[in-house]
Amino acid sequence: MANKDNYYWHPTEEIIANANITQFMEHLGISRYEELIEKADADPGWYFDQVIQYCDIRFYKPYDNILDTSKGIPWARWCVGGTTNMTMNCIDKHRGTSTYEKDFLIWEKETGENGTLTYREFDAEVCRLAAGLKKLGVGKGDVVGIFMPNLPETFAAFFAIAKVGAIIMPLFSGFGPSPLITRIQDGGAKVIITADGTWRRGSPVSMKALLDEVKDDIPTVESVIVVRNLGQNLPTQMTSGRDYWWDALCQDLPIDTPTEEMSAEDPAVLLYTSGTTGKPKGAVWTHAGFVTRMATDMGLCGDFKPEDRFFFMSDMGWMVGAMCAVTPSIHGGSLLVVEGAPDYPETDRLWRVIDQYGVSFLGVSPTLVRGMMRYGDDEVKKYAFEKLRVTMSGGEAWTETPWLWYFKNVGHEKMPIVNMSGGTEIGGSIAIGTVIHPEKPSSFAGPCPGVNADIVDDEGNSLPAGEVGELVLRGPSIGLTKSLWKNDDRYIDAYWSTIPNLWVHGDWVSKDEDGNWYILGRSDDTIKVSGKRTGPSEIESILMETGLIAESAVVGVPDDVKGSVIVCVCVPRPEVEVTPELSEKISAAIVDGMGKSYRPKEIIYVSDLPRTRTMKIMRRVVKAILTGGNPGDLSSLVNPETVEELKAKTA
Questions:
Q1: What is the pTM of this model?
Q2: Which are the contacts of 440, defined by CB distance < 8 A and separation ≥ 6?
Q3: Residue 508: left (phi > 0), alpha (psi -120 to 50), or beta?
Q4: What CATH superfamily is the domain 13-90+265-522?
């Protein structure tokens, strides 16, 4: 229940005293969090240098200069002259310590099969696969895709790729052929690591066969490594000289494969994120950058400790996958990995695994919580969650109802919900909570230290409390994407050109009189379905490829369960008759190309789409009509009659 100050949760004196962020501030001689933010924003180089030292982020060769902005803030270089490797900081550094004998990875398959790997055992798996990758000719700078469900091998692959100096390219396990082709082509992947298949709600689903289907469209792929996950439940065709079973490739290979010494600024991860126009954008994280951001976001602010067990039911294909790999390992904690759905084979599976496996540090998205709420309070009340002490949330903005439901039923009104919001291009958070700040529903404590975040108007002026503005960065951040993959011009155009000298993130944000920040949603047309960000162009291109649709506008509209669902507003080709069968074909094309989660809620047919005089389709107008919102200024429309037509179609 909220206090008179509208805060629902207050940290105890014990929590504040034992918090990682408190001890870090004491180390720096800083008494107030606000002072830390001020100092970190004034001198981000000083701040991240202190984080690196305090959090034991290691280098083979020490850096000469923490930060170089001589080419401008968008092109900032970090840890200049230093050499390191992400795998060294997450796995190798635990060798010879008591941590090395601790459980690191605890796993459960959809079938119920489970197991545990210590750091020592996991390291051996990483080393064997790294040696296998070298046998296939993989080395520094090569791109290796991970197209995998949540299995222990998925995380071993993550660190093995980094270990040999190659670049990890995570791919969402639910992708259809179109997004797979786009990303693999753009990234130029040399090897793909996949599974024969995975279980989805009791049914075997092939993954290797999908790669076979698109093999002619991904000519850079020389080899495919396949994990036996389903085995005899799913016969798998293997091509000699290209396809290799993981276990056969790694058999009898050494468990002490050396880790490649990499420049701190070398790419470690290539992760694609979608925008409103054009093909997906390849964000690039470095060996030094991502581990440092996880140390500050999850370790200092989130309060992850070596005794914690981390669990976030997500997919390696999204940012959370890399977060799951790095957060527990860099801190010497443990990770729970679960294949399948949170509500299958039993509807309380999510709550059961949290309780059964002793999760203490849980990640959730509002979409996940909304989805579990439909099964009722009794499903969650079966479990005590005795080990659970912190929840971190991300992926999208909360609304009050699911936040309060989770706070009451899972957190028992005693546990903090540490809100984090940033993105793939950030490599971490922009707005963040901590365990030393009181909480209101969906609130953030404020900006993340060292990123120079601000809330501004269209001219870049800082806004006072109570006003809604754009979320921006005013300075360099160590986790920020190193341009976009092979596309410097798009990097500047997408992030640094809207307001000169500011990174414009594309989120609407406000703050209250108490200093709490709130993310209100995207300020562009990007669609989020179940927390997954997708650009309309990816879906619209699939509609065009059917040969049935002349033009389309794909938008996301609010949904109580998924957060957002897809609606397609289509202009059929002149010779095409609008029938129920047409809608079935269009829906099937989207599912086949993008995956089941992208099945449209509704398909609407119109004679034309609202567009500007430069013929740009006005998706914000389409979305406003569909949701009953204000379409805003329509003076730039060349065909205002389309607005009335669409209104009539949705009346």
A1: 0.84
A2: 2, 6, 7, 8, 512, 516
A3: beta
A4: ANL, N-terminal domain (3.40.50.12780)
Measured CA to CA, the distance from residue 300 to residue 186 in angstroms comes to 35
Q: What is the pLDDT of residues 495-553, one digit of tens each?
A: 999 999 999 998 888 999 999 999 876 666 667 776 665 767 778 878 988 889 888 88
In the CATH hierarchy, which top-level class contains the domain 95-256?
A: alpha beta
What are phi and psi for residue 114, nearest 5 degrees?
A: -145, 170
Residues in the chain: 651
User: In the chain, which residues fall in CATH 3.40.50.12780?
Assistant: 13-90+265-522
Name the DSSP letter for residue 494: I
Residue showing tokens 């206090």? 3
Task: Quick: pLDDT tens for 460-498.
Answer: 999 999 988 999 999 999 999 999 999 999 999 999 999
Query: What type of residue is 326?
Result: V
Q: Where in the chain is the domain with CATH 3.30.300.30?
A: 527-650
Q: Are 425 and 393 in contact (CB under 8 A)?
A: no
Residue 251: which residues within 8 A CB-CB, separation 6 or more?
none
Terminal CA-CA length for the chain: 40
Q: Which residues in 269-295 are b (16+ Cβ under 10 Å) and which e? A: bbbbbbbbeebbbbbbbbbbbbbbbbb
Run of H or E residues at 244: strand 243-245
**Does 345 sit behind a cis peptide bond, omega within 30 degrees of 0 on the bond before it?**
yes
Q: Output the six-digit token pair for 413.
A: 């009104």
Contacts of 219 (CB under 8 A, 6+ apart): none
Report the interhelical angle of 33-42 vs 44-54 (nearest 10°).
Answer: 120
pLDDT digits over 306-342, tens only?
999 999 998 999 899 999 999 999 999 999 999 999 9
What b/e readout covers 231-250, taking b as 16+ CB neighbours within 10 angstroms?
Answer: eeebebeeeeeebbebeebb
Q: Which fold has domain 527-650?
A: GMP Synthetase; Chain A, domain 3 (3.30.300)
